[in-house]
Amino acid sequence: MFRSFLSMLAAVLAAAAPLATLAQAWPSKPVRIVVPFAAGGPADLYARALAEKLQAALGQPFVVEDKPGGGSIVGTDLVAKSPADGYTLLMMSNTHTVNESLIPDRPFQLMRDFVPVAPVNYSDLLLVVHPSVPASTVKEFIALAKSQPGKLNYASSGPGTPYHMAGELFKAMAGVDIVHVPYKGSAGARTDILGGQVQMMFDAITTMAPNVQAGKLKALGTSGKARSTVLPDVPTISEAGVPGYEAVIWLGVMAPAATPRPIVDRLNAEIRRIVASPELKGAWEKQGAMAMSMTPDEFARFMREDIEKWARIVKISGAKPDQ
Fold first, then answer.
1. Residue 79: in which H helix or E strand, if any?
2. What's the rounded Cα separation, in Å, for the pair 127 and 104?
3. 119, 189, 209, 282: which could join 183 in a potential S-S bond, CB 3.0 to 4.6 Å?
4. Side-chain half-sphere CA neighbours of 235 within 13 A
5. Which residues, at least 6 apart from 15, have a Cβ–Cβ distance to it below 8 Å?
6. Any idea which fold 124-240 has?
7. For strand 62-66 and strand 114-129, is the pairing parallel, antiparallel, or unpaired?
8. Which of 289, 279, 168, 184 is nearest to 228 (CA)?
9. Containing H/E element for 302?
10. ∠ CA 313-220-93 to the nearest 5 degrees?
11. What is the DSSP letter of 214?
């Protein structure tokens, strides 16, 4: 019996050895992080910050490639069809968990064709309007929208993005009719609200706060449960007129399905170490972004719950990918 136990133990160790070697050998060449959104948005900015730290830690270039299009479908499908070898990663957001129900004819399924690696951070959204809009509070804006059904527009960075769904959730909970104007990226949407081509937008507080602080736009509310430390004088949307309203943007990293678990675990450990570093964590918090830390399995559970949450909201709001 003892000999049998030793034989089994030897077999287990022999099987584990190549996997351990694989994790130690990776990466041996540049790794690309595909961002399926336009340059300049939160996913792009935080992917670049993460890539810089991963490159320093792992000794190989981590190259960020922006592949926008189709509400994140184009870049995401590229990663889904890439080799599962740890050299192509996806910088994703809750756009992806929304699209599981919003866009049923996607060429991939998130939890089938990808493996969760690690979350990165989350941040509140900011409801802003152009200065020409005659409303300075959420209640005033709701009253204005109700007096002009279908006349006001809100911009988003594309169908299924957190900015789109935040707008649809707001419409459903506030009972207003505002027209969705989707853009190919957040930069275009941001440019047009600054120019007054659209009246309202939800945007990440990390990128929109400077425009509010410069007086270029009016902030009516933030989307989290509590006020943001970045703009503490701006009330939450929930306290300002839509009780219970909450929507955030979160970012994470995934890899093609069948990526070896030792590589996933090593990436997870490095990302968790990076986002927990006082330097990065402190800098992000000043911008309004809060670091997230989970194991791959915890992140997978979190994502499944988020998919279910947004499926309910898509159904309640009646949101469509082309509206």
1. helix 73-80
2. 28
3. 189
4. 13
5. none
6. D-Maltodextrin-Binding Protein; domain 2 (3.40.190)
7. unpaired
8. 289
9. helix 296-317
10. 40
11. T
Residue type, 244: G
Q: Is the pLDDT of residue 20 over 60?
A: no
Say if pTM beats, i.e. exceeds, 0.70.
yes
Tokens 């990065």: give the residue. Answer: 280
Say whether 124-240 and 29-122+250-317 share the same fold. yes
pLDDT value for 285: 93
Pick from 163, 197, 209: which is nearest to 182 by CA?
A: 163
List pLDDT tens digits, range 64-107.
999 998 889 999 999 999 999 999 999 999 999 999 999 988 99
Domain ranges of the chain: 29-122+250-317, 124-240
Strands 218-222 and 200-204: unpaired
**Sign of the CA dihedral 105, 119, 173, 234?**
negative
CATH number of 29-122+250-317: 3.40.190.150
> Does residue 35 sit in helix, strand or coil?
strand
For the cut 70, the answer to whether the pLDDT of residue 300 exceeds it is yes
What are the tokens at 252?
Answer: 């994470």
Q: Three-state secondary structure along 116-178?
A: EEEEEEEEEEEEEECCCCCCCCHHHHHHHHHHCCCCCEEEECCCCCHHHHHHHHHHHHHCCCC
